Amino acid sequence: MAYQTTITTKGQITIPKAIRDMLGLRPSSRVFVDFDMEKQEASIKASNDFLSVAKSIHVKKPADPLVARERMESVYERE
Fold first, then answer.
1. I need a labelling partner for 60 at 20 to 30 A (CA). Which of 7, 24, 33, 39 fits?
2. pTM of the shown model
3. Which residue windows are coiled coil (predicted)?
């Protein structure tokens, strides 16, 4: 699958939506850009660094610290 895009005056390109969707890219996602000198080709890969992964984790509802402590004390015995 190939797409054509334009380079802006700032040297930026827009990654087509279909490719962003396939790579799971969202605003502020990090990517790796690699360049092959022999082939004169650039490739883009999604980065699975900690910050990118952390942004995709959603907490349903923060736990009440007192309730969490009570649960912990009921499961674990003190020595």
1. 24
2. 0.54
3. none
With CA atoms as reference, report the closest residue to 47 among 59, 33, 34, 31: 31
Rounded to an integer, what distance in angstroms lies between the CA atom of residue 23 and that of residue 60? 25
Tokens of 70: 């009570």
Segments making up each domain of the chain, as ranges: 17-75
Interatomic CA distance for residues 33 and 42, integer angstroms: 7
- Distances in Å between the alpha carbon of 55 and those of 4, 26, 49, 62, 74? 29, 10, 10, 16, 32
**Does residue 64 surpass a pLDDT of 70?**
yes
Residue type, 28: S
Highest mean pLDDT pick, 4-13, 23-32, 40-49: 4-13
Is residue 34's pLDDT more than 70?
yes
Structural tokens at position 48: 């699975």
